Amino acid sequence: MAKFPHLPLRTILDGSYKFKGFAGRGKSQRSLDNLNNRKAHGTSLLQMTEGIQQLNMDVLAWRKEQGLPDLPDEHIIPVLLQVDPQVFNIESLKGFGMEVIAEEESGFIIGASVDQFKSLKAKISKFIKETNQGTALLWQIEQGQQWRPEYILNEELYWKWLDGIKDEEQFTVDISISCHIKQSDHPVQTKGMSDESFETKLSNWYENTLVTDVELDQLMMQRQDQVQTFIELGGGNLVGGFVEYRDSFGFRAELSGRALKDIVLNYPYVFEIAEHCEIERQVLTHEDFGEIDCTILAPSIDSPNLCIIDSGIQQNHILLEPAILPDRSINFVPHETTVADQVPNGGHGTKVAGAVLYGAAIPRAGTVQAPFFLTNIRVLDAGKAMSSLLFEPELMHTIADHNGDISIFNLSINTRVPCRTRHMSQWASAIDMICHEEAKIFVVSAGNINDTGSLVNRPGIKEHLAASRPYPSYLLEPSSRIADPAQSIFAITVGSVCIGEFDDADRASFGKKDFPSSFSRSGMGMWGAIKPEVVEYGGDWIKEKAGSNLTILPQTSPELVKTGLHGIGRVDIGTSFSAPQVTHILGHLQKLFPNEHVLFYKALLIQSARLPEAIWHNPHARHLRHMGYGIPSLDRAIDNTPFRITFTETGAIAPKKAKIFSVKVPEEMRGQGEAYDILIEVSLCYTAEPRRTRKNLRSYLSAWLTWESSKLGQSSQAFHADVLKEMVEKDWDQEQEEPEDPHSIKWTIWSNSKWGKIKDIRRQASANQKDWVVLKSFELPSELSFAVIGHKGWENDLNQEVPYAFVVSFEILHSEVEIYDIMQQVNIEVPIQARV
After folding, report:
1. Among 574, 580, 581, CA closest to 284
2. pLDDT by residue (tens digit) across 480-518?
3. Where does 150-183+212-276 sit in CATH, by number?
4. Cβ-based neighbours of 108, under 8 Å, separated by 6 or more
5. Which CATH fold would you assign to the domain 293-616?
6. What b/e sequence results for 330-345 when a residue is b if at least 16 CB atoms lie within 10 Å of its CB, and e otherwise?
7. CA neighbor of 72 nearest in space, from 219, 273, 223, 218
8. Phi, psi (deg, nearest 5) at residue 491
9. Three-state DSSP class for 186?
10. Residues 765-800 pLDDT 10s
C-alpha cells in the first residue's frame, strides 16, 4: 500500500448547459468579394461545372473504348471544391447535391456530385438572383483530374506517379473509401416548447438515427462489393478483409500500375491510397555483457497480463520463462508456426519483453518474482519484417479480439518513413478505435532515424550531418517526424533519451544524459498533438570526431535481455527499447490499481513525467517536440511524498457538459511571510470514437475534452459562472484574439498558443494533456477550482458520454515543509488505495 495514497477530487458541480452557439469568425474577403460580384462569381461556377461534366462524359466514353471495367454509379461525378474555411460548414454541401468524400487543408473538399450538378446549378441561379448568400462561400471547383493523385496518394507513391507509373508495374497499396451518411442535428428544446413535445421530438430523432445506421451498414456493404469487383475486373486482388470506421472503410490490395491509375483518377469514393510501407528493420551488432545467476519466480496469480506484439520471444529464457503464458502465444507470420524470436544478434521481441518485465533494472542475482505475465504475439519474421499479407489495421483488431482480457499492449514497431499528416492513417485509426471501444492502452515507439539513408528525401543521421544539419536540429526536420502508427491520438508514444555520455580522443556521443537520442523521431503529431508524450532511456550513437562512422558502445546503451547463452546485452539502441520501459510503469499501475479504468493509468503516467532539470524551468516548443512531457517516474506515478499530494478523478462526460472540481489550500501553505515554490501539475486523458475523412481533432473525434482552472483569488462560484459564460460564447478549438487575463494562472502550455510559457502549442490539441505551473505559496488562493468540459465533435447524439481521467498534483519544491497531511485534512475524502 502506498504511504501517501492519491486522493479523489471533490466534485462541486456536474451539470449541462443549453448552448447558444458561437458566432464564429466572419467571412473571408474572397467571400465578401463574391457577394459584391454575384453575376461574375455565379457565371464562373457554372462554367466550372460544365467543364467538369464534359470531362466526365469524355472519360466514360474513353473507358468503353479501352475496355476498362464500368465505374460504379457512373452518374456520380468526382470533384475538388474549395470553400471558405473560416465559416463554411462542409456538412451543408448535401444541399448542393454533394457527398463529402474527405476534408483537406485550406478549405479544399474532395466531393462527389450525386445529381449531375442539378442542385448546385439551382443554388448558383438563386445566388445570381440575390436569393441566397451561401454560394459566395463556395470559391471554386477544380478543373481536370490532375488534382486527384496529389490529394489521394501518399507522398512516396505520389513521387512515383510524377516519375511515371508503368502499366505492368505491381503495387501493394492500402486504400481508403469514404462511406458517410449525414445525420440530422440533435434536437434542441426551444423557448416555449413543452417537455412532452421535446421528448417526442427527441424520441423521433433517435428512431431516425437507427434508420440512418442501418442505411450506413447497407451502403458500406454495397461499396465494399463495388470496389472489390472494380479491382478484380482490373486484374487485382484484395489482401485480407475490410476494416470499417465510422465514415469509411479500408483494405489492402495488390494491383497493376494500370489498375492503380484507374482507381486514382476515376473511382469517385476513394480519398487515400498509400503504398504498403516496410517496417523499420535496422538490426545492430550485439555483444554479450555479463552472465546471470538468479532465480525468477512466477508472478502472483492476480498479476496483470501484458501483451508484446513483436518478433516473438525466447520463451525458455531464464529471465522470462516464469512470466510467459505459452498457451496464449500466437504466430501471425504467414507460412510459419514458430513463436520464437529468430531475429539475429540477440533478437528483438525478447529484448522488448525483458524491458517490459523489468524496466531498466534487470536482475542478475538472488531471487526475484516477476511482476507481470507476458503474452507473446509474433508478427515480425527473422528479418524483422512484417509481411504485406498482414494488413496492420485488421491485425490490430484480431490481436485485441484474441486478448480481450489484456488491457496493455506494447508495440515497438514502426514504418521506416515519417507519418502522413493529412488524414490519420488506417493503422493509427485502428489503434484509436480499439483504445476507445475496448478500453485498451497501446504503448508505441516513436520510431528511429537510421544511421544512413538511401533516399534524398529520407536522409539518415550521416546525411543530415553531411548537409550541415547538426544534432539536435535535424531531429526537427519533416523527415524526422514520428513514424506510423506513433501518431495515434490515444496511444502513449515514447521517444528516447540518452542514458549517458561518452567522450575520448577519437569519438563522442551526441547528447548528454536525459537529452534526446540522436535517432529518436520527434513530433508534433497530427493536428498539433504533443507527440511523443514521454521518453525513456534508449541509448545513443557514438560518432567519430574526424570522420562520419557511427558505432555503439555499452556505456551509452541500455541493458537488455537477449536471446542466446548469456542472456543480457548492452549494445542495442532505439525507441523500440524505450517504449517497453513505459509499458513497465503502466503494468505496475494496473497491478496496484486493478479496478481503475485504463485512462487512470495513462493520466498518472504523464502526470509523473518531467523534463530534464536543465530545461524544465524554461522549456520551449522544440523540447516538447523532442521529449513530450519528459521522463516518467514509477515512484511519482504510484505514490506521493510528505511534500507532494495528488488528487484524481475518473468518469465520463457528454458534449456540452462540465464537471467542476475544487481543491482547498490550507492557510499554513499561504502565509504572507513565506515564499515557497509550489508546483501544480494537471493531466487529462480521454478517448472518443474516431473517424478518418475529416482533417482536425474535433472532426476526427465524436467528442473532445478540455480543462480550465480558476483564476488566482477567484471563488468557485465565480469560476462556475465563467465556465458557463465561456461554454456559451467561446469556440474552444479556435485561437482567440482576446488579451491574456492578468489574473489567470500562467500555465506552461495553456489553451491559447500565444499565452503559455511555451508558444505555438495548445494543450487541447492532444487527447493526452498535461500542463504545469510554479506559483509562490503566498499567491495561492484558499480554494482552487478546475473544470473538465465536454465539446461536440462529429457525433450529433449529445447524450453519448466519453470516458476521462483527471489528475491534479501539488508539490512544494526545494523545501522541507510537509504539505501532504495538511492538504489531506482540508480535502477529506477516501484515498485511492493501491492493492496490497
Report:
1. 574
2. 999 999 999 999 999 999 999 999 999 999 999 999 999
3. 3.30.70.80
4. 80, 81, 82, 151
5. Rossmann fold (3.40.50)
6. ebbbeeeeebbbbbeb
7. 223
8. -70, 155
9. coil
10. 999 999 999 999 888 888 999 999 999 998 888 889
